[in-house]
């Protein structure tokens, strides 16, 4: 809940004896905060603004009556009890209800107030009902100290109460505490005011100002309004004596009008002399005079006076009337020309304290009047989901079965309240299937009501070129896009983008990134679709289906300005016709991309992911006819040369991983004046770069991984604006570095073949970054003959440079120097210390480095890890905050450490016997595996992390600082006890501390405790309340556990062989591992939250308690006494019940109606459960297998005793070695998805040895000349088992190969090429039949006999088995057209595996 802070606050001085109970500023944050929280829980039926509590005989006809009338005079609904006599001691039910129904309670403390038990009981009830934060005391002719101390007349009253209520001492004490509490609250003291009239008016005025803060924040369906409401009211600062204009700016439907309406309702009528809420209409967009007349009439309500108003000069009479009024104005949905707000208010000034709120989609309408602008953004995800749920199901209805759909719709709306409301209302009372249908429609066809609201902003642009920029962003970019990218494809984009930002049609974010709301994008795409039913006549194509249609069928026209095609989402090969672009005279953008394979989406150095289908140009391509082509991108371009087009307007050329050998054959350089970026990265066949000397504005040239390039051409030096040159991984590039352009800023030469750097490299005066990593042939860096004022980073990682130049001090601005993994360099120049700006020095794995020179005094990070010959370190600069000499095996001592050091890693410094004094600033100390270290120095007070893993000689620890939150002391074999643990510690790891017999008191803050294999540990101390993870595995002497905290979610007690029982398990426990607890005879009740239960080899356990419905993993292998299993929950994804040799029955096994993806493949094993009865095998397990295999998307494996393949397996062997299958048309595009079953026995095996089961397809292809059939083989691993002896028949069912590879999913061209050769397409079309077999090749003495097997299709389209025929007969696929795969499921994670021809 949002907590609203008032602008003027009641004074709360700590000196209650002399305090002035009046108005103070800034003292009441807690008052309002608690009020807000208490009001949120109060009844929504509050009828009264104020409840008056008073002593009737003292003030009824005087002060209280005057206060009542003053409050009522300001329209403050006030409750005042009209009973003239207070009867009895107990207050009436009517009064109790009135107190509950009031926002604020005012208590008038007069002289005789304490003598009335009625008043005291009323006070107690008020404080119980309202708390302290919405109760205001008025000390009327009584001093607050008398009330607080119960002295004077109040003390006398309480003496009498004690006598009269001897048997009710608690009641009297309750009254006393109530008065003391009340006296400490903020309030009013009558002596601080000149007269009673002043006091009454002051109270009434203050209450009026406070009431908006007390209003309930229950706004019905206006979910998520609290935070923007708080921010707007903060900007308004009502009470400040100035005139303010607040602009609320945002996209259509975002809630601007709603927010302004609530603020208007809360403040206008009670705080201002005049107010009006005016909505601007499109018809009045340019008619400021009429809107101005409406505004003045609403404020003045005098037509005669308004007749004196003129457009350019304001009337003096009207001005005088306005100056005398404090007004509140809302101008809603202001639109039109940018000067409209100025024109509307021109010539008139408003009274002091006036406020104006203006809502608009156009920021320019707001900035012109110097108002404060508040940008209203979409709802947070949880608020959006709540709002949508409210409109779709009402406030109290459940949404069972709709959970995933709810999230999909909420995600679609992206926090836009209008969209959430419209969609929720339209889907109300609809079925799940209707929801799914509506969602599918929304993907391409936006809701008309939402579209209508959003289109207003688009139509209001007016300028066709700016509308075009908006459509470009919407159609060609899905997420964030750099501003420069848009400017490269659109005309006049610089000013146009600014207009779109101001109109709330796009959002400007960090680093000049632009973003568009998904609803606006969908609306824009609908506008383009409305241009024509024929996609070839539309201006922009972004949908893969439409783009492929135009390119394959040559239906493009001059209407097309841009084509976007995501190659990673292709579902088939695309054959572009030779004349596909011959009619596109206005084409500006062509983008056939694989962006997700390359940076920045893929951070790897090499392309990632498979492209299953490709775009081909088998007949070549005719020249492009457009003269306006600005953006040309064709990733994996298949031809050797660039197609001809006019490059006069080209801005970006991107052809990554292409087959290009040469861009063009022109002898003369082309006019490329507008070209700014070329990216030909990963074009391995590119042998040379054409003359680009006239690309005078080229800024970025990316030739990364163009491995056929051998030199840089001479014209490079003419590229005067080139700033970023990427040549990394050009393995054969050796020459031409003397031709580098002088203005280049970032130069990447890593993994090239260069042998030397020319001295001219230092003439690149603007060079900032130079990367020469892994240039293995580079032995020397030339002397630096001039100051490099901009160079900040040099990367020499993995080079074999023998020495650095002595003139390295000329790198005056160098910040980072990396020489890591240089195995040759022995010394660094002494001039290194003159690099005053050097902050990071990386020398890790410089294994020949024997000593370091004096270090620069500004150095902050020094990494010398694995410098094995380094015996000592020089004086360390005081600026150093990170030192890492990890694995410096010759280092025997450390120099004095700098005072500012924050992190020190001396792990595996095997000769280091001691550590000098540690600086007080140190936060992280790692001394892991310092095997000679015998003691630690005193630890600094601010240390947060201490790692002393495997410090085997360390016998004790010093006092641990109070700041330490993580201690890793595992495998400290000599430590026998721990010092007291600090109170803020969060993690403690003492694994394999074999001599540790006990643990001292654990801090209450501890969240994780790892104490596995503490073999001497006999008991645990009480566990902290917030502990989340407890691992005590293999603590073999531990016989019992203390009470487990309710916060615990992960408990591992595996191998606690002495543990005889478990305490009650906490309700939030998610994981429980008690494997090999062989003395454990029973389990407590399992919590409903349990997700994973591992109880393998608990040989004394005979039964399981009821299993929770949330359980996903259950391991009860080798329960030799277990005879039956309780009901298995439908959530179960992994069940390991192997070797439960006494198991006879499972009561039941539920299965989920909808399968969800699981991080681990479903696996259900009943291996060697040979006593399972017929009902369990033939009904419980069989039914679960059939359902799971038919509906699951995960790979699934079942193993259970039996010798029959289930009848529903369509194809089964009957003595044959293989099964013949008819294949559907287009099978090679769709992939084949089967469940496979085989019956097997293992006659000889070893438990720790894996047995692999393999599969094989044999494809038959008829030759075109009617000759012999050709056979093609494809196979791989199907599954694997542990090689134990299984001397009875078992059934195994697998839904797809163990390694997820092969033809069981959509097949890539590469796989088909490897199996069927270069003519795979025509060959596969002729293949209609295949044989399939499952087999095991005996190895290492393992004997496995596969007796029979079967295969069942999981794709639609198979014929039903012929039950009257032979089970071994061929069963064909049903009809399956090439355009409609009839349910074949696509999965693009497939990779070729074990493929042979």
UniProtKB/TrEMBL annotation:
Residues 1360-1397 are annotated as: Disordered. It holds the Pfam family WHD_ROQ1. Residues 47-185 form the TIR domain. Its EC number is 3.2.2.6. It catalyses: NAD(+) + H2O = ADP-D-ribose + nicotinamide + H(+). InterPro entries: Apaf_helical, C-JID, Disease_R_plants, LRR_dom_sf, NB-ARC, P-loop_NTPase, RPS4B/Roq1-like_LRR, TIR_dom. Gene3D superfamilies: Helical domain of apoptotic protease-activating factors, P-loop containing nucleotide triphosphate hydrolases, Ribonuclease Inhibitor, Toll/interleukin-1 receptor homology (TIR) domain. The keyword NAD applies. Residues 1386-1397 have a biased composition (Basic and acidic residues). The keyword Iron-sulfur does not apply. Keywords: Hydrolase, Leucine-rich repeat, NAD, Plant defense, Repeat. It comes from the Eukaryota. This is ADP-ribosyl cyclase/cyclic ADP-ribose hydrolase.
